[in-house]
Amino acid sequence: MDGGIVLIILIVLGVPLAVAIWLIVRAVTASNEIRNLSTRVNELEYELTRLRKEPAEPESRAAKSAAAEVAATLEATKPVAPPPVAPPPPLPPEPVVPKPPVYVAPPPLPPELIAPVVKPPLEPEPAFK
């Protein structure tokens, strides 16, 4: 009976303690994620205000000049077509060599019939003399 009481006490105290620890860990993790998200939002807001203040034309000119540079680089580095490959000259035919003769064993001889050895039947000896 003492074991049952100890088990009940452990369940009553242990389960709430485990749930409390789990909730604390979840709260700390959520706090770190919220901090990371707010940092990202602040960075995006800063970039948005910076992009709104800058004029759009210098970027488009720079983009056009960059595109022109890329196009010029591509034209300069175009691959040159390789010269056509000539097919290899035909090989001369191989000389015909006759195959060596194949040795064939002669057929086996038919078996000789041997007369069976038959012993004459023994006469039984009388059991009582």
Portion in beta strands: under 5%
Question: Which bin fits the share of residues in helices?
Answer: 55-70%
Radius of gyration over alpha carbons?
A: 52 Å
Tally the beta strands: 0
Envelope shape: flat
Uncertain spans, ≥5 residues at pLDDT below 50?
A: none
Q: Provide mean pLDDT, rounded.
A: 82
Order of helices and strands: HH
Between the first and last Cα atoms, what is the distance in angstroms?
A: 98 Å
Please work out how many helical segments DSSP would assign: 2
What can be said about the biggest beta sheet?
A: none
SS-derived structural category: mainly alpha
Key features?
flat, mainly alpha, single chain, about 55% helix, about 0% strand, about 130 residues
Q: How would you describe what is shown here?
A:
This protein is an all-alpha fold and 129 residues long. The protein has a domain at 2-76. Helices cover 56% and strands 0% of the residues. It has 2 helices and no strands. The longest helix is centred in the first third of the chain and has 52 residues, at 2-53. It starts with a helix and ends in a 53-residue tail after the last helix.
